[in-house]
Amino acid sequence: MIELDLALHSFSYSQHYAHVPGFDVFAFIGKAVECGFAGVNINLNRPDWRHLSGQAPEHLRAVRARLEGYGLSLEIDTSGTAPEALRPLLEAARALGARNLRTYTRHGGSPQQIFDRTLADLREAVGVAEAMGVPLVLENHEDFSGAEVAAIVAAIGSPWLGALYDYGNSQMVLEDPLDCVDVMLPHVRSMHLKDHLMLRPEDSPDGRLAVLGVTTGSGCLPIMEITRRLVAAGHRRFVFENVWAYRAPVRRDARGTEPVTLGRGSFSYAEPPFDGCLSLSDGAPPQDLAPAELLSGEGRAVDAGLAWLRSAFSAAGWQLRALPAASLSPPAERRPAAARQKHIA
Q: Is residue 273 reached through a cis peptide bond, with omega within 30 degrees of 0 on the bond before it?
């Protein structure tokens, strides 16, 4: 039996962050512990550092103490590749004790211009990462194919830059997820495990071919085959990212990749009427739904996706590492007063 660590991505509870009063990074960490995760991945995108719920040094120390009290590992996310913008995030990663800092490009222009500008940025940024002692990982987000990410990482050739493989993001450039993982595999340091279906233009509110986030196990991504390839390459830590209520348009065809067939295999379409637990009811944008519906759908999607994943991993001979019982309640002095009175979950 192969033992794996599973971490929980904060995007999994994005609707709770948005609509539940008092739901903050400490509540999210509590969710991760309740669900039996061995680590967390926290999104610090946007100027307000999003799901970290604060930027003050004392706040970072409190978050780190909570994570260490529970024995949870940490990765953090941001976006953009400009060295001056990455510096404060790398400083935060160091203060928090994060394993790495994920980023992706935010440059515009032609595919070649985006590639060249990102490469130039990261050539400089790896020096900042080394000085901070925190590796950067470049994600195949929604702009690059796996081959383009691999080419950037290989061209820089620094131990302070690796790749983050996302199970479904290659669909946004019409690249097969299995082709993507194969070409990225020598450079992968982390990964985001999730599930998608394709959304026909006529079913999409903006009339564009799109990718639709669905409950893990209910979509078309070859999750188990991707995971087998990553495990065979020696990876033992995976990040579970519930992306229910997520939609992204297809941006372009990836350069130099094999053509895909829409409506089949990894590019199968979501068929209306949509199940609210599978995806968003009737394909409606999140802003058109009541908070109660968003919270209910998100909670059910996390629970159902995690149950499916545990069962599938067990059938494959992979056991998820459980946290030691002693780590489930950190020292009281490390917890905020409200949490000492009643643990927020």
A: yes
Sheet holding 210-213, edge to edge: 196-199, 210-213, 247-249
Query: Which has more confidence, 160 or 336?
Result: 160
Give how far Cα 47 sits from Cα of 8, 101, 118, 140, Å.
22, 16, 20, 22
pTM for the full predicted model: 0.91
Q: What is the pLDDT of residues 155-176, one digit of tens each?
A: 999 999 999 999 999 999 999 9
**C-alpha dihedral sign at 105, 215, 22, 92:** negative
Identify the residue whose tokens are 């979501």.
Answer: 270
Helix (H, G, I), strand (E, B) or coil at 198: strand
| Type of residue found at 290 | A
Q: Give the architecture (CATH level 2) of 2-333.
A: Alpha-Beta Barrel (3.20)
State how far the alpha carbon of 24 is from the alpha carbons of 13, 20, 179, 236, 287, in Å: 10, 9, 37, 28, 21
